[in-house]
Amino acid sequence: MSLANRSLVTIDDLSNGEIEALFSLADEMAELINDQSKVCQGKIMASLFFEPSTRTRLSFETAMHRLGGHVISAVDIGATSLAKGESIADMARVVGSYADIIVIRHPWEGAARVVADYAGIPVINAGDGGHEHPTQTLCDLYTIKKERQTIKGLKIALWGDLKYGRTVHSLAYVLARFGATILFHPASGLGMPEHVLRKLTTEYKGELKRYEALDQVAKGGLFPIDAIYITPSIPHQLAMMPDISIQVELKTGVDALYVTRLQEERHTPAVERQGVKKDYPVVDKKLLKEKEFKRTLVMHPLPRVDELAYELDADPRSMYFKQAARGVPVRMALIALLLGAKEVTIPKEDDSFVQKVDYPIYRRDSGVRCPNPLCVSNQETEVRYINPEFKIVSLKPLTLRCIYCEHELQPQYIASSDWHQGMLENKKYHSADSWLVRRIKPGNLIIFDTKNEAETRGFKPSSYVR
Ligand code: NCD
């Protein structure tokens, strides 16, 4: 099967079978790494890195060189026309006419999607703000598979800054899709964002237990957790009787501990990080002496700061340098596939942990905006071309998910474009929590953030406005 001309913006752009096939190709590439120099001969990769990067950029560029292709690059917004006020869309169109594939890292969440929408060539997201980092996830998953042969049924702990770290967002989705149990151990105040947790519970088949619902032992044990995502993949005690002590279950061992650094650059304001820094959880020899970590793979996307002790580097459980090294064959396989230079056979898909949902889309220009200030839809100086667009992920309460950064909002007021049928006296708006929200066809729904906005557009409050 060909994956030619596809883009990788979020990890969900690849199915489980496609990921498995990509890993087989990465194995082949790793084995004969010096024999791949004809695979992408004559092709050009644009490497656009508008945030600091060592591993991701250099492994992508190494990958393209190993495949026999060429690389053009821009690594500083200040050195591009974006600094003159050019839109990302225009940049994407232009670079798309020079290169055959684009790899982009950008501080705005959803920026890679915009580039993919406008470039006309395959685009790979190398990290868009705190949103996602799908290729790091491919390296992480590849490493776990290499070391453990499977993902299904494993217990994997995500550690550190789960709020602003993009790698853990993509990783959580893929672990859920492959049937792993996920333990969340965030630094204080840096738990997984609500929109990520919601996606885990609505789009994958496991069950999420939050801190308040955990029993005392689990809360305060050696390895305190803030939430746990329990996969339905194995009929183990935990899944059948979720109220038994999770700590007891953990005694059977954690398969991987995925450590992340404090994402200081995304913390605002600076004071927020002062307190967190002091209490940031550290993984060291002492912690790993505990029984549940006996066979644990210690992982980290790198760079590390203080959260992972150097004394662990020689420990056979430490995987982080292997993760980084595997970035080259994994990215070689990805580039070759998206450029159509290689085809693969997709193994039989196991998507039994995925809950397929087709959410209706809301794209009316009624002034509803994404609440995330770092979202690309709020960042382009004058938003000249990006129309806010949302998935309606719930009606009770009415919840919209931004298609760019996936942050959610719960707007207050609704109306129908159909019911007033040109009759001004019928042009009414209602509270979003009234039963009417379920009566209006998604195509006719108009959503407002404030009463003022509804009234400015000529709507009057109905008796269903609180
Ligand atoms: C990560 C990133 O950029 O999100 N690094 C990487 O790509 N290997 C993690 C981080 O910066 O902490």
Largest sheet, if any? 6 strands, mixed
Q: Kindly give the count of domains.
A: 3
> What's the CATH architecture of the largest domain?
3-Layer(aba) Sandwich
Classify the secondary structure makeup into a structural class.
alpha/beta
So what's the CATH class of the largest domain?
Alpha Beta
How many helices does DSSP assign?
A: 15
Q: Order of strands across the biggest sheet?
A: 7-8-6-5-9-10
- CATH superfamily of the largest domain, please? Aspartate/ornithine carbamoyltransferase
**Amino-to-carboxy terminus distance:** 55 Å
Helix content: 25-40%
Unreliable residue runs: none
Strand fraction:
15-25%
CA radius of gyration is 23 Å
Describe the structure.
This protein is of the alpha/beta class. The protein has 3 domains: 133 residues, Aspartate/ornithine carbamoyltransferase (Rossmann fold); 189 residues, Rossmann fold, CATH 3.40.50.1370; 101 residues, SH3 type barrels, CATH 2.30.30.20. 30% of the residues lie in helices and 17% in strands. The protein is built from 15 helices and 18 strands. A 6-stranded mixed sheet has the order 7-8-6-5-9-10, with helices on one face. The protein has a 4-stranded parallel sheet with strand order 2-1-3-4, sandwiched between helices. A 4-stranded antiparallel sheet has the order 11-12-13-14, with no helix packed on it. A hairpin with a 5-residue loop joins strand 13 and strand 14. Helix 1 crosses helix 13, helix 5 crosses helix 6 and helix 5 crosses helix 13. The longest helix has 19 residues. The radius of gyration is 23 Å and the shape is globular. The mean pLDDT is 90. Bound molecules: N-carbamoyl-L-aspartate. N-carbamoyl-L-aspartate (NCD) binds next to helix 2 and helix 6. The site of N-carbamoyl-L-aspartate has 12 residues, from helix 2 and helix 6.
